[in-house]
Amino acid sequence: MTPKEKRPKIEASEIEAAFARSFLANGFRGTSVDSVARELGVPKGSVFYHIGTKEEVFFRVQMEGMREFTHQLRQITNSGNPPEIQLREAIRDSVRRVDPSAGPLFAISRDSHHLQPEHAAELEAVRHDYQSLFIGIIESGIDAGIFRTQEHLKVVVFGILRFIGLVRDWYNPDGDLSLDELADVYWVFICGGLGHDALPA
Prior knowledge:
The chain has helices at residues 12-26, 33-40, 44-51, 54-77, 83-96, 105-109, 117-143, 153-165, 167-170, 179-193. By secondary structure, the chain is mostly helical. It folds into 2 domains: 1-52, Arc Repressor Mutant, subunit A, CATH 1.10.10; 54-193, Tetracycline Repressor, domain 2 (Orthogonal Bundle), CATH 1.10.357.10. It is elongated and about 60 Å long. The chain starts with 11 loop residues before the first helix and ends in an 8-residue tail after the last helix.
């Protein structure tokens, strides 16, 4: 590059988007500042200047996704729909996030152990908010007599969320079911476990 040539301008949002794509495709360990800089055609120093360390941008990507995820669930719980319908919509929203176009949250959440302790604590606080909203849906169903009383509701919800999260490990978009169809299969199954005979949508 000659002194008169200008380096391409780059926005922090473009860099974070490139990191998010790489985290999704390669995981935390497989992503490097060098590779992102090469993809964007900018010096490595520009990447550091805009986003700091790889861990910091990884944290921001996860937080943005988790906050949006929680916001969507809050909208579902405020919809006024019956609890069993709220549960269906919550499961659908969660399962849809297996699709990379919905964001890299699920695909990279397994790498959360790479976060610094203070970042891990912040992310866990938002996850706790999400879990509390999910618990609230089932509690509403119990209060309405739709779902069976659960002695260990937090454990039940933790199991449900883990069950849904495992979709990312095996789902094949070329298979027999769309994500919404799969979510409805899960909804009927989960409702059955909660003592409610749900009919497929």
